[in-house]
């Protein structure tokens, strides 16, 4: 079993935290080499500072798009291009996004299934989400999928396993509401190539010290044991 990438999101409740740039040093010093943020929560000028700070630390940069409509989503894609992020996660207007991303080096991981609300929820039946995942993964320019597995009200473990079995040639990141050891283990067992943690660490939910470094260390300890 390959250890997935641990992507720490400088976000709480699907919004980038106000002091995100100030926290990059702490996150990087804890050993995290994949750091992300959302397109909601800070003005663009602050996101520029944040993206630059992450790059300067040597970490890989991720922007997750959580816009609710086509127009705002495409503005977010354009923001990701302007910020020069390494990975663009999320979004559902895939064909439009692919046109904008063509010619860039950004690796694109859209959401399979139907997404609603903020924080985001994954809607549809298990079969519909699997079919969506297969369809998206077949498109040139889609490098992987950003699966909101724990924002799904059905059988999450079955969903992760079925998406992984159906999509064997693209990477899959499990994102959203990973807030306990059992969920980390389930994502790893299902074959996730990456997983994101953000709100849980900021809320101090993991059973260790409540400071940010302690929370990050706990997640990394769990991953090292799996």
Q: What report would you give on this structure?
A:
- The chain has 226 residues and is α/β, with parallel strands linked by helices.
- Helices cover 42% and strands 20% of the residues.
- The protein has helices at residues 20-29, 44-57, 70-83, 94-101, 126-137, 156-166, 181-189, 199-202, 212-225; strands spanning 5-9, 11-12, 15-16, 34-38, 60-65, 87-90, 107-109, 114-116, 121-123, 144-147, 171-174, 194-197.
- Helix 1 runs parallel beside helix 2.
Brief digest:
With 226 residues, this protein is an alpha/beta fold.
Rough outline: globular
Gyration radius, rounded: 16 Å
Number of helices: 9
Ends: how far apart?
8 Å
N-to-C SSE series? EEEHEHEHEHEEEHEHEHEHH
Mean pLDDT, to the nearest integer, reads: 96
How do the strands of the widest beta sheet line up side by side? 7-6-5-4-1-12-11-10
Q: Biggest sheet, in brief?
A: 8 strands, parallel
- Please bin the fraction of helical residues: 40-55%
What class would the helix/strand composition place it in? alpha/beta
Keywords:
226 residues; alpha/beta; 8-stranded parallel sheet; 9 helices
Helix and strand arrangement:
Blueprint: E1 5-9, E2 11-12, E3 15-16, H1 20-29, E4 34-38, H2 44-57, E5 60-65, H3 70-83, E6 87-90, H4 94-101, E7 107-109, E8 114-116, E9 121-123, H5 126-137, E10 144-147, H6 156-166, E11 171-174, H7 181-189, E12 194-197, H8 199-202, H9 212-225
Parallel strand pairs: 1-4, 1-12, 4-5, 5-6, 6-7, 10-11, 11-12
Antiparallel strand pairs: 2-3, 8-9
Helix pairs in contact: 1-2, 3-4, 5-6
């Amino acid at each position: 079993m390959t250890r997935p990438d641990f992507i720490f999101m400088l976000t709480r409740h699907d919004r980038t935290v106000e002091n995100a740039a100030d926290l990059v040093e702490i996150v990087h010093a804890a050993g995290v080499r994949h750091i992300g943020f959302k397109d909601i929560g800070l003005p663009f000028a602050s996101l520029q500072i944040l993206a630059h700070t992450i790059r300067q630390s040597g970490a890989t940069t991720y922007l997750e798009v959580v816009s609710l409509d086509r127009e705002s989503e495409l503005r977010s894609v354009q923001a990701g291009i302007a910020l020069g992020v390494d990975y663009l996660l999320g979004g559902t207007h895939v064909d439009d996004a692919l046109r904008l991303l063509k010619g860039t080096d950004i690796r694109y991981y859209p959401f399979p299934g139907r997404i609603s609300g903020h924080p985001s929820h994954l809607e549809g039946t298990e079969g519909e989400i699997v079919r969506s995942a297969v369809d998206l993964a077949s498109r040139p320019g889609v490098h992987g999928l950003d699966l909101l597995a724990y924002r799904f009200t059905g059988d999450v473990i079955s969903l992760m396993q079925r998406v992984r079995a159906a999509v064997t040639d693209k990477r899959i990141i499990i994102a959203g509401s990973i807030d306990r050891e059992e969920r980390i283990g389930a994502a790893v067992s299902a074959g996730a190539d990456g997983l994101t943690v953000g709100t849980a660490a900021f809320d101090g939910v993991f059973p260790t010290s409540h400071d940010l470094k302690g929370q990050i260390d706990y997640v990394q300890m769990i991953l090292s044991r799996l």
